[in-house]
Design brief:
heterotrimer, A: about 475 residues, mainly alpha, two-stranded antiparallel sheet, 20 helices, about 75% helix, C: about 170 residues, Four Helix Bundle (Hemerythrin (Met), subunit A), 7 helices, EC 7.1.1.- (chain A), transmembrane (chain A), NADH-Q_OxRdtase_suN/2 (chain A)
Chain lengths: ~475, ~525, ~170
Amino acid sequence: MRLSDLYFLMPLLILVGAATLNMLVVAVKRNHKVIFGITIVAHLVAVFTLLQLNGSSYQIPPFFVMDGWGIFNLGLILLTSLFVTLLSYAYFEQREERKEEYYLLLILATLGACVLVISQHFMALFLGLEILSVALYSLIAYLRTRERSDEAGIKYLILAALSSAFLLFGMALVYAVTGTMSFPEIGVYLQSVSELPLLLLTGFGLMIVGIGFKLGIVPFHMWAPDVYEGAPAPVTAFIATVSKGGMMGLLIRFFSQADAYRYANLMLIFTIIAIASMLAGNLLALRQKNIKRLLAYSSIAHLGYILVAFLAGNRLGVEAVSFYLVAYFITSLGAFGVVALLSDTERDADQLEDYRGLFWRRPATAAVFTAMLLSLAGIPLTAGFVGKFYILASGVNTQQWLLVLMLVLNSVIGLYYYIKVIAAMFAQTKSVQERRKVLHPALSFASGGAMAILGLLLIWIGVYPTSLVQLIRGLLATFMTTF
Amino acid sequence: MILAWLIILLMVGGILAWIAGRFNANFARWIALLTTLASFLISISLWLNNPTTTVKATNWMMRYEVPWVPQWGVSFSLALDGLSLLMLLLTFFLGLLSILVSWREIKTKVGFFHFNILWVLAGISGVFLTMDLFLFYFFWEVMLIPMYFLIGIWGHANRMYAAYKFFIFTQASGLLMLLSILGLYFIHGSNTGSYTFNYFDLLGTTFPPAIGPWLMAGFLMAFLVKLPVVPFHSWLPDAHSEAPTAGSVILAGLLLKTGAYGLLRFVIPLFPEAAQAFAPWAMLLGVVGILYGAILAFSQTDLKRLIAYTSVSHMGFVILGVFSFNEWAFQGVVMQMITHGISTGALFIMAGFLYERLHTRDIRQMGGFWPAIPRMGVFASIFAMASLGLPGLGNFIAEFLTLVGSWQANNLLTIFATIGLVAATAYSLRILQKVFLGKNKAEHPLTDLSLREMSIALPLVVAILWLGLYPQPVLDRAKPSVDEQLEAYKKPTIKPEIPAQVTLQTLPADTVRLLNTKGGIHALK
Amino acid sequence: MTGSLFYFLTFLTLFAALGVVFSKNPVYSVLFLILTFFSLSGHYILLNAQFVAAVNIIVYAGAIMVLFLFVIMFLNLNMDTEQAQKKSVLTKVAGAISGGLLLVIMIAVLKDAEVGSYDPENFDSQIGLVENLGHLLFTKYLLPFELASVLFLVAMVGAVMLGKKETQQRHF
């Protein structure tokens, strides 16, 4: 532990500091606005300090590494969390539960994800994962009086604990074989053996269970629809983005540092998972009438798409994953942001019926939602298209024809249900439907502004992806020197 | 640069129309009309400023290229040649008419409607202009979404189903094309070391023989679905019959043409060997389409559905011509694209006029309208005659040239295709007879064409007559482009044995083709 | 001295463990279990692992066993309920089979196991001491240590937040 370590861990320290500050403020006086403000400022400062670290590659042995990939993921997570916070204000303002602890838990969950993406050691990995999970247990069940929130919280709690146990067991097995818990040293060990020992493979397999659960990929996806449905909309956005993105960042770091791409049987496992996720996600989404469940299934499918690029296992693949993560984060935030905007005190606006004729009632909201759905479907002019293009490119480049064809097939299936929602929004309501009362017709400035920014980002990246590609390539330069 | 402005103008106009539509419906209409008119005038001035007589080193009148995503070798690359120019003129001409035709028909959400119209036009212009495959796919998809909305929001009763079907068919086939584009990109990249999506660079890429046909198949899927060729046509009757009039006009007149254009521009020059291997099957598909479309058209009772099936039939000629690989046929295809756009667009407009008066598309409820609305009768019969290929009207030239060209490639199939012309006569006359002749079934008095409607119909008549009587400017304009697309087939490197022609026992096709392309030039002048 | 202590502790452990299984009163079982943990901790001390011994007593004998007792008292289990429950033959057979299988596996695994040999040259008698552990925790493993504190903070905030009664709450 050196003093300069603190400098490189500054974004994380700021988050911890903000959490502490929030606690103190709550102890003195509960004020939603103040807590909200502190949270926003903390995120901004954290992002600012992160910018200072750009281009560095710094080791904090044996736990952390601050390289391009870590900085990219940190930035992504912090900004995503910032947007989640912005969307939360209006959402929680209309609810009676105590709102202040929410921000505290949100900051700490973000911290957990941040630890995850810069860790290169099982110990740090596990602590980060647990901080994220434990914070999510309470975030999911935050609106306790809601019908489904208990169910969702308990479900997530049990399954996450179970998957953590699997992960721990897997790590123990890996440790038993290799005698080390740090990724690069595991890589060194793997270099020394020609064949993957059976016990090590078992260990990796058990770890995949834990990782797969967090990513919500088939067959570890069962929790996703219920949790998405039961959790408050901003928390759902957080689960869909930060939680999954953090795990994806870790997975890629582990595979590249330990150089696990070499093993055909590991790749085979992931190929099967990817195809199953794409198919199951899209097919199950087809008949959903509940928007949050629909988005849950769609996110299962999207993680399957990301795995296609992950499986490419080369530089282009990692670039594609990074790009897709950005696009997918923007899109998910936008989509759940709309759900949050339209929700009222009683329940979230998660039925398809809530969106019927939305375009004629609230054109701006509907336009943003349409853009987000089109992006999920991968239609040009949106970031989702460029992301999907990138993934296809990495798949074609490594000639994984089966995966690529499955991706195309699934895009078409996916199109069907995205269009269904869009069609509902543009449908002309026959009778003048009784409008559900929305508590804050004058959109709260934060939510409205956040949605506008997300929409613009979506289009900007969709039309002019050059600068983002540039950024990702620049950051990856310090990460993937081996490729 | 002016090419980029054409597209930007339409897009900006669309947004303006949407915004204006929130205040006053007529603002939106006028903005849309003026934008399209401006684009039309720009393309006319392009025509006038680039006379065909001047001999130039290249047939590309202008090119505009700026890097877009340089890391991937994607550039914003537009280029104009004779073929593109003709297609652009057609686009804006039909665009103008479709805006005029919706003037009274569309009463709800006028601003958004015109936004969609202008963005479809922008997407289509982009498809016709772009010379970068990434950008091409981009525009290819951009034109779908507004079209989806046009059908889905302002269509007839069963509009959602039709819109779904249209979108999913075209999207699925488009994604396969994207895969092929990527395959082409990486093969070219690994061959030459420069990774680029630029059309001009990708021309002449050599493939391993096992991969070429697969790559072509991806492109073909997109274009054949769009065209549409028979096994993939089922979206078209639904989309056409459910769309509002303007939507039908743009669908039939322009969207189908992007498929034909794609075949000419991309499939033929990029994959010469694979295309030749596929040619007999493609021609067979074309003939099947011609006959199948005609037979189904004859048995329809829904007027718009009937016209839709005539499109299937007419588009059969396009694929027949494209895979004949000679200049006669290609000129015929270009003519067919233009004249079919005009004549079918006109028929849809007529159907729209009738629908406005009768509120039905069922021809069993029509009949004997000639005395009541003679002006419309005259116009409709001109367009029906055009559709059946009466000499003197544009379609005749197109089909004649196509058949002459395809005869040289494949006699047997050409004979079958000619039967399609007879069938066309049958269904075209059936329209006239059922709607305008016979016992009068009108329940209430019909009003004849108004001044606005006349001003829509007249330019169409003028255009179709001009194309029929003096097609030379169009043929001249298209010639350099057509030659260029055939470039790969004139080289002596072509393998002498072309399985297609051999199996179907015609003359050795190569010699014939080379002779005829020379002869063709003389014959056309 | 150490040897006789070891045998005494071993005897005590086994006796207490059997007592857990065989005593009819669940409260006695729990008390026997606590005794088992204590004697296990004695073993740890003999192995020069004071920290593990202390943690074992605090966590298992202290926290977890108290929870056990509470649960048993809440459920009001006693000798009557124990006897009232008829254990079917099937349960017994299944238990015997699974226990037997476990035994077989254990024998199979331990048959070939090599016990690491004791190397008096490099033996560091200080390795399990609290002082060393603390030293490591505050130097090399400072960051994970701090992260663990954050983890507890999260758990605490979450538990309090979820467990607290709202003024207008109707449940429970």
